[in-house]
Specification:
Blueprint lengths: L1 H22 L1 H6 L3 H20 L3 E2 L2 E2 L13 H11 L6 E8 H4 L15 E8 L5 E8 L6 H17 L3 E5 L6 H12 L2
Parallel strand pairs: 5-6
Antiparallel strand pairs: 1-2, 3-4, 4-5
């Protein structure tokens, strides 16, 4: 996509340059067909500008940005923990990755402003039969030591506590063996 955009920018600049040169007196002395260069320059610059500024309509909707599918939904360490979590009572629980708080928590007041619920937790344990949310699980890497991430984590924990939805947090580098993870998860679910 960057190569296409770069080519269009070069085409736009070249078109403007050709148009500008075609209007110069020395170019008119060089050829009496200067108007062809002027038209070509204007058309090239115009087409390039249109292509750069045009946002395609998709199904009747005009998109203001371009979108690209991500390569993977979760990182390798998150995948490894997901596999461990899914071994915990698989006949009783389903573990869903990348769940937004808004999917499992309703806001009781000021319902029109739910921005804080658009934070995503790494995993959600749900009852296999009813899909009732039972527990949220976070796996924090070193980025969670930053102030903005720390504040985000505190807000998520406070929201979960207020909603009565347990939250368990593991950190990269912790012992994430099955027995340790299962103990922490079961203790939180059975509260």
């Amino acid at each position: 996509m960057k190569a296409k955009k770069t080519a269009l920018i070069i085409m736009f600049i070249a078109g403007l340059a050709l148009f500008g040169v075609s209007l110069a007196p020395f170019f008119r002395e060089f050829t009496d067909k200067f108007w062809i260069a002027a038209v070509v320059g204007v058309v090239a610059a115009g087409l390039a500008l249109f292509a750069l500024l045009h946002r395609p309509r998709r199904g009747g909707v005009t998109l203001s940005s371009e979108y690209k599918r991500k390569g993977v939904l979760i990182s390798r360490p998150e995948y490894n923990l997901l596999q461990t979590l899914r071994q915990i009572s698989p006949s009783k629980y389903e573990v869903l990755p990348q769940v937004a708080l808004v999917s499992v928590i309703d806001k009781k007041t000021n319902a029109s402003y739910r921005n804080e619920l658009f934070r995503v937790c790494d995993y959600c344990f749900v009852d296999r039969d009813t899909f009732e949310p039972l527990l949220l699980v976070e796996l924090n890497d070193s980025s969670h030591k930053r102030e903005d991430r720390r504040l985000r984590d505190e807000k998520v924990a406070a929201i979960c506590e207020d909603a009565g939805l347990p939250l368990v947090t593991f950190r990269m580098g912790d012992d994430l063996s099955y027995s340790v993870v299962k103990k922490a998860v079961m203790r939180a679910i059975l509260k």
